[in-house]
Amino acid sequence: MTVVKEHNDINQDHWSQTKEAGTLAGMRFVYFLYRLFGRWIFTLIMYPVALYFVLFRPEQRKASLKYLRAHYHVRPAMWSKKPGYWHVLLHFHHFAEVILDKLLGWLDEIKPSDFVLTFPEKVDKLLNDSRGQLIIGSHFGNLEFCRGFMHRYNHHDKTINILLYDKHAGNFVRMMQSQNDASRMNVFQVDEFDVTTIMMLKEKIDAGEWVFIAGDRIPLSGVNRTVNVNFLGATAPLPIGPYMLAKALACPVKLMFAYRSPKVNQKVLFDVSELCDSLQINRKTRQQDLTGYAQKFADKLEEHCLESPYQFFNFYDFWQPGTEYSQLTGHKQEGVQ
Q1: Is the four-CA dihedral 248, 252, 253, 257 of positive or negative sign?
Q2: Where along the chain do its domains lie?
Q3: Which residues does 297 contact at the CB level (< 8 Å), separation at least 6?
Q4: Residue 48 buriedness (CB in 10 A; 0-12 / 13-18 / 19+)
Q5: Residue 63 and residue 79: Cα distance in Å, rounded?
Q6: What three-state secondary structure class fits 312?
Q7: Which residues of 96-112 are buried (b: 16+ CB within 10 A; e: fewer)?
Q8: Rg of the Cα atoms in the chain
Q9: How deeply is 316 buried, as exposed, middle or buried, from its count of CB atoms within 10 A (0-12, 13-18, 19+)?
Q10: Helix, strand or coil, per DSSP, at residue 209
């Protein structure tokens, strides 16, 4: 039986304690170069930026290597050799490319023809559903693609709300706002779900609106509101918040992913799947039910990670805090310092 862990303090390893790298002026300068010369110059400039992270961000470097090697041990056929720091640099470089895409996701450069839908019929069904929806996303790929795509090419007048915590990324938020005010439309900073917040979201759902939430990060309160799931062959804590919220909102729940994929010539792969039409949690089997829903999300996240490993951007100790790589997989933790 899975138990919910008790721990109330946010330690320094928590993802929300990660300091933002780069100044607002630096971000604007790099974006200016992109507008002037195109994507190739941005791609070139981001290699030394990625190298900076490899050299001077040890926690993020360790987290990246830990994840890449977990991927290697689950699907070694995708790798020519065991991932090392060169692969970590590529991982950071992919993240830099996604930062640019987060901006472009709200500008005119992203067209419907840039997207490849894994299941077009599911997208059509979702757009034609008049009910409010809870959409669970992740820090895999680019959630801004989901929001930007739905916001601009949505002919059904769906209102999209997003719940997030980005106080640790103030410069990027200001950069987004300077390029497109709509990028902050219906965006809500949520630390915890209190009664007032849930009532507000329930009104939006009842009005047929959508609510986006990430399902892959430990809540600010720590691991006291998480359940254990299997992810890439090891145990990882995932938040129960999205599923408790889904129960309170009494609405359909979808999983959504969007990311550039080499399988479709670097176009944006857009995937929508149904978690449940109405989330049910039995009081007697609460932990098992929550774990079951979280595991379905983890399975879908793992499915995409296995296909595009460099698109997973949780640069913190994603598995059980404090556990070493050898404890997770049974393999020696070679090269991780």
Answers
A1: negative
A2: 16-329
A3: 136, 138, 215, 216, 229, 238, 242, 255, 275
A4: exposed
A5: 18
A6: strand
A7: bbbbbbbbbbbeeebee
A8: 20
A9: buried
A10: coil
Provide the token pair at 78.
């995708």
Q: Integer distance in angstroms from the first to the last C-alpha of the chain?
A: 34
Encode pLDDT of 143-175 as tens digits.
Answer: 777 766 666 555 556 788 888 765 544 445 555
Q: What would the pLDDT profile of 47-85 be if each residue is shown by its tens digit?
A: 998 999 899 999 999 999 999 999 999 999 999 999 999
Alpha-carbon torsion 208, 212, 215, 218, what sign?
negative
Q: State the Cα–Cα distance between residues 48 and 53, nearest whole angstrom.
A: 9
User: Which two tokens mark 126?
Assistant: 């979702």
Please tell me which of 20-34, 142-156, 300-314 the model is most confident about, judged by mean pLDDT.
300-314
The whole-angstrom separation of Cα 38 and Cα 277 is 43
DSSP, residue by residue, 125-165: HHHT--S-EEEEE-SBS-HHHHHHHHHHS-TT---EEEEE-
Structure confidence by residue, pLDDT tens digits, 248-259: 999 999 999 999
Find which of 37-41, 203-207, 318-322 is predicted with most confidence, using mean pLDDT: 203-207
Kindly list the distances between the CA atom of residue 100 and the CA atoms of 34, 145, 148, 297, in Å, as whole numbers in the listed order: 9, 11, 13, 27
For residue 116, give both structure tokens. 């490849």
Q: State both tokens at 319.
A: 């598995």
Residue 317: both structure tokens together = 């100790």
Handedness of CA 214, 50, 181, 190 (dihedral sign): positive
